[in-house]
Design a protein that fits this description.
alpha+beta, Beta-Lactamase, Helix Hairpins, Heat Shock Protein 90, 3 domains, five-stranded antiparallel beta sheet, 15 strands
Length: 455
């Protein structure tokens, strides 16, 4: 049940409850109807017998029976008998009925004759100007039972239909009742996918629990948006304020390096210079991300020959990789064009190739591949480095995330966050495959509508 949607679970619960209720009601109705049908047959029998004396008169010493006495009404057969000899005087009995039945006044008896079941009712009637006679009424309740069986069969046929209608009605009611929940879920997904905290559920006016939940959620989003905006402004302000002291300290360190002669002092100053460069880079990246979050960066897209651009970057990094004895190879398909912001595109590829060199083993290879595939452009950077654990692949684009201590001294953990943002701005999908101690592959997949080719 946990794997079923709430809508389906409510539908199943509603259907089950309604089915049980309908089954109980039908059972009670059928039980009552069964007794009621047989009771009606008995009542008709008694009434017909008790009213039959009105159809009898005396002329001289003979009994005169009206034609109504001979007619079958309500399925009741009437016959009259001599009180003493119980010989048949007049009337009719059902075909095949054993009529030599002892007289028993005022009691309805059940008699089975052949394949049929009968009710028999006897009444002693005094006839003025004549002796007492016995009037017997006989009625078969087989027909009533057959009609009741037909009713049961009809009910059994209708029951699945009622269950089906109940299920459909339950589903429609559940869908209508949970429509606000679906809207809340959809809004939350859009906020998560687009990272747009300005969106609201906005269900409108309502007093039930779901509307209260939606209103509370909107208030929470408003508070979160304000908090995030404050954090963005704080990050931007801090990064901006740090640029000047970092620039001043850089100049002071470089000046000290030019003047220092002691090896220990030179070593310490070199460490400070490296840290200053790292801090300066981190501040620059923070400013970029902060401005990106605030929507203050405007992309200048143009039709770029990325085949030439990627080849140029590969050649540049080929020289830089020689220091670690890393070989850079590339396979670049000619004539591939893309609508892109050149500065940001270069920065995105720079960050990925720089990471590949930084975390690759010595005497290993880095391969850069650019090609068309299935109406898309695919750009891959493969390295033979320390790799990334599978459980950490989804976190590498988080800001300041460091997988292990070995990376903390080399990076602030913002480069891949910038890569992700630039890729999103170019409608590109990023896929990462990695095996620890074997290497990592970053693949950028650009949509076909962003692709072009040289005419």
């Amino acid at each position: 049940m946990k794997h079923l949607s709430l809508k389906l679970r409510l539908t199943l619960l509603h259907t089950l409850v309604m089915s049980i209720v309908v089954a109980i009601v039908l059972g009670l109705l059928l039980s009552i109807s069964s007794r009621e049908v047989l009771s009606n047959v008995q009542n008709d029998l008694e009434r017909r017998v008790n009213e039959s004396y009105e159809d009898i008169s005396v002329l001289g010493n003979e009994l005169i029976f009206d034609s109504d006495f001979f007619e079958i009404q309500d399925g009741v057969y009437l016959s009259s008998y001599n009180e003493d000899s119980l010989s048949l005087l007049y009337g009719r009995i059902p075909y095949g009925f054993e009529y030599e039945l002892p007289f028993e006044e005022g009691k309805i008896r059940e008699v089975k004759s052949g394949e049929n079941n009968y009710y028999v009712y006897d009444s002693l009637v005094p006839i003025k100007g004549y002796a007492n006679i016995v009037i017997r009424g006989i009625v078969s309740y087989n027909d009533a039972e057959k009609e009741f069986e037909t009713t049961i069969k009809t009910a059994l046929i209708l029951f699945p239909l009622l269950v089906a209608l109940t299920a459909v009605a339950g589903y429609l009611l559940s869908r209508r009742a949970l429509r606000p929940v679906s809207k809340i879920t959809k809004t939350v997904k859009e906020i998560r996918e687009k990272e747009d905290l300005s969106r609201r559920v906005d269900l409108g006016e309502g007093k039930d629990e779901i509307y209260t939940l939606a209103h509370t959620f909107d208030e929470l989003l408003k508070d979160v948006e304000k908090s995030v905006e404050r954090e963005k402004r704080f990050t931007s302000d801090v990064a901006h304020e740090l640029r000047t002291p970092l620039a001043v300290s850089k100049m002071a360190i470089e000046d000290a390096l030019d003047k220092a002669t002691d090896e220990k002092i030179l070593e310490d100053l070199s460490i400070l210079k490296n840290k200053n460069e790292m801090m300066t880079k981190m501040v620059s990246e923070l400013l970029l991300l902060s401005r990106a979050d605030q929507g203050r960066i405007t992309l200048s897209k143009e039709r770029l020959d990325i085949s030439s651009l990627v080849e140029m970057l590969a050649l540049e990094f080929k020289e830089l990789a020689k220091a670690k004895e890393i070989e850079v190879e590339y396979e670049i398909e000619d004539g591939i064009y893309l609508e892109a912001d050149e500065t940001l595109f270069i920065r995105m590829i720079d960050n990925v190739i720089e990471n590949a060199i930084k975390y690759s083993f010595e005497n290993s290879k880095i391969k850069i591949i650019l090609k068309r595939k299935d109406d898309t452009i695919r750009l891959s950077v493969q390295d033979e480095g320390i790799g990334i654990k599978e459980e950490n692949l989804t976190r590498i684009f988080d800001r300041f995330y460091q997988e292990d201590e070995s990376r903390n001294e080399k990076s602030a953990g913002l480069g891949l966050s910038i890569v992700k943002w630039i890729a999103q701005k170019h409608d590109a999908e990023i896929k990462v495959q990695s095996t620890p101690n074997k290497g990592t592959t970053f693949t950028f997949i650009f949509k076909s509508e962003a692709c072009g080719s040289l005419d």
